[in-house]
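Below is how a single chain appears once it has passed through the pipeline. First comes the sequence as given, then the structure the pipeline wrote out for it. We keep one example in the README because the format questions we get most often are answered faster by looking than by reading.
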Amino acid sequence: MGKIIITKQHNRLLLALFDGNKPYLMKSAPLLDEEDILGNIYLAKVKDIVKGIQGAFLSIGAKQAIYLPMDQCRQVLSANREVAGTIQQGDEIVVQITGEALKSKQPSSSALLTLRGQFCVCNYFGHGLHYSKKLSSEKKELIGSYLEGASIEGREKYHFTIRTNADNLTDFTLLSKEMESFIHIFDNITATYKYRTCHTCFYHRETEILNQIKNISLKMYDEIVTDEEGVWKLLSEEITDKPVRLYEDKMLSLASLYSLNTHLQEALGKRVWLSGGGYLVIEPTEALVAIDVNSGKAQSSEKKSSEYYLKINLEAAKEVARQLRIRNYSGMIMVDFINMNSAHDKKLLMDKLESYLKEDNVRTNLIDMTALGIVEITRKKVSRPLSSFFKLHPETNFQSCT
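Resulting structure:
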């Protein structure tokens, strides 16, 4: 079992999930007193409709503007009029912040409200109960029987998806409590949104670091360790499934104990070495992420061996999946593996790569291998890449971008 390590790095919180000596996942979150508006739900006012980009600009405060794509307002809660078709300038509608501000772009939003917990996801619009594909049929049946007997008031009004983490539950009380809390939040919005003043905030999402932990499967770790006392107090109150420990050794910092500076430098760098002597060259561009697999330090005799090429490619496949998780790259990813002539070896490589990509909590699809031997991957964008929070620095290895 792994450990979750949380420490402060250059005015950000850095979360690293370790599986052995290497991080399996790395995330950045704001300090507890610097939380942003991501996930919050507001009564916003439509200021401008821009048909050319199929979107609208809304205000949630005197100086705070947000962007709303039209495809994210198929259903709308409107406080000042009944919206029969598209929204109009002057409408007061309930929206949720779904994307952070980036450079000159405003935060993005959606009128399709969603609450995400550790064990379930609740959508305001829609009805019914669905399950994560990763849950076994036996577990789905047990949960379904429990929820039927629990008779949670108001559950039929919203759409629930039971998350993979529910697989770890033997007592489903925590799941029902989470569902009840989401129902209460949405019921409160339903009862009050027509009577509240514009720019009202109906819901403040839980702190980002807590949200990130809840998105990690309980099977992946057995302990959370932090040297930030405020984080320790928060997590000790909110996390009941796993122990949370405050690291207090003054002689050796938590970052040094786990070589976090070294791991972060690698996650921000261009080259990643493989234990077999090969290496990856990772180049993000505006359109896509290009990854090149090289044979590296192999002896000339080894380089002539098809077995060696397969060995390097298989090792590279596992590392590619890890680097995508750690760096949080999204969109199109093109991987140029070492060329192999054997159809059997190519199929083995693709099968292994697909199995590694399926471990990702973010939806990642292995598309195909092109005629030129380039492997195509797509990964859903859910947040900014790690490099948008930190960057390499020639003297101190890296520094904060925010």
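The radius of gyration is 23 Å.

See the next section for the split statistics.
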